[in-house]
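Hi R.,

Here are the chain sequences for the assembly we discussed:
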Amino acid sequence: MMEDIRARFLRATPEFCRGCGNIIILNSIISEIKNLFGSMDGFVFLSGIGCAAWIPSPNIKTDTIHTTHGRPITFATGVKLANPDLKVVVISGEGDLAGIGGNHLIHAARRNIEMMVICVNNLTYAMTGGQLSPTTPQGTITKTTMEGNIEYPFDLARLVTNAGASYVARCRTADKLQLQRCISNALKKGQKGFAFVEIISPCPTQFTSRNIKAFQSIKYELDFGEFLNVDREGFVEKLRRSIKKNH
Amino acid sequence: MVNNLEKNANAKRNYWMGNEAIAEGAIAAGCRFFAGYPITPSSEILEHLSKRLPQIGGVCVQMEDEIASLGAVIGASWAGIKAMTATSGPGFSLMQENIGYAAMTETPCVIVDVMRVGPSTGQATLSSQGDVYQARYGSHCADYEIITLVPSTVKECYELIIDAFNLAEQYRTPVIFLSDGHISLMRETIEIPEKKFIINRKKPTSKDDIIFGSISNDNLVPPMPCLGEGYNVLVTGSTHDDIGFRDTLNADTHRKLVYRLAKKIICNKDKIIKIDRDFPNDAKIGIVSYGSVSRAVWELQELAEKENIKVAHLRLISLWPFPDEEVRLFLNKLKNVIVPEMNSGLIVREIERCNNGITNIHSVSKIGGGEPITPSELLDLVVSLS
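And here is the predicted structure of the full complex:
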């Protein structure tokens, strides 16, 4: 079954480390799109720079834009405003979306622009060798915090909830049923407003390997579930209505 | 208010400021998407288009910063719409990474930079010409070539921004439009031309068309599909093959791609370069200028005429790719050439590079306060050299 979907919806063989969560996320997205929409028609995937940015590009067989670091949401905003018929999905890591691109994340949530954003949160900058990220838990050993991280991490799901948005959830690759439900709900909501899913995903290569001994001292307090699921008028729809009214 | 704006835009004669002419010229060129962030002295372009674009089915959005503005413009361009952003020096610096991305992914778009005094915040709002090299070499690893246009009048703001869109579409490239504080904020009466020549990007005709490559001379500029048309477009700023697949380890793929990006501009220099040459028969002294400084040169020519001195004038309307041949031909006939600029003397380096050794090049540099170079300042030098 999964092989059929892959043959239909992928155009390359995904290349990720052993044990990486990206493959689970890719599988879940294409399965849920098949379940909800039947095909990839009209979908545009955008991603920034980092391991998670390679989930859609080049793998998913539809239009994909692999943007500059931290900016996929800005490109996606242009795409959606220029052609509101397109179904816009951003997939990137937490370093990309909440580190260098954090400003765009909160502003897109504030505008409530119609798109779905998946933030693959592996708690570290993996592609560059395992440095501190804005969500790295306190106590974690990273390449730039060899004595254990002392910074407070972002709670991304709550950050985005407070910035605006229509849908916010946090889930993990370890809980497949919850993951699929959140992606499915966000895909639906992402056509009407800003839908954000934070997925906690393992990075055995850069995170786990360095923290096997330190695991007990890591302060890790994330909760999971849906944080927001409301009906609010999206930016494109508001724009359309204001143009109609004034002209 | 809305009606007045529409009426004004359709009038044949208008008393516009440069920024309004840029905005209206963009609309005439077919621009239907604008994303920007307020910054003096460019904000009127954003303000004007926020009123005008919704009237004609376009979209204008104020983004959270200049990086986001150009990001949205690139996204809109891939969605098939002609798109533009406008800023000033500090914002132009923030856009540089995405300018490189637009060059690498061959995304047509227009970036207006209304130059003001720097470095850094400098003397905000006041005019300068300090961004001429930022336009050419601003994005990291400037192995790409870029087209840059420089207006000298309000009328030219209108006409040249149409050229900017045409060149962007024709060569699938970002085009930089370098205005300055003087040109953008001054008002002049302009006649709107009845017929405008508009170029639209070449689209693929089959799903097998190569959309990112081929180095053969007849296909330096590949066709560009839109998102959502079933082409399964693969856009990436990483080195990519003809189809768009990332190939970051193969040296040949990189060379083939980047040489073509440069070649498509260089091989079409003749069609891109725009100059305005005024060469009286017995002129022995010449001036090379661009942008608002050219206006002082026009007045200087009249003043010098009264002193029986003929001054030749080469005005660069396009700055990049640099018009080497045109400058060389101009210098060859003159003993002394003055290069006045509202910066510390930047383009004079390019002029020196084109010098055959016969001509004496004199840089006239003025920075600070947004003070223009005056005709009488130039006259003193012209008289002393004659």
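The mean pLDDT of chain A is 96. DSSP finds nine helices and seven strands in chain A.

Let me know if anything looks off.

Best,
T.
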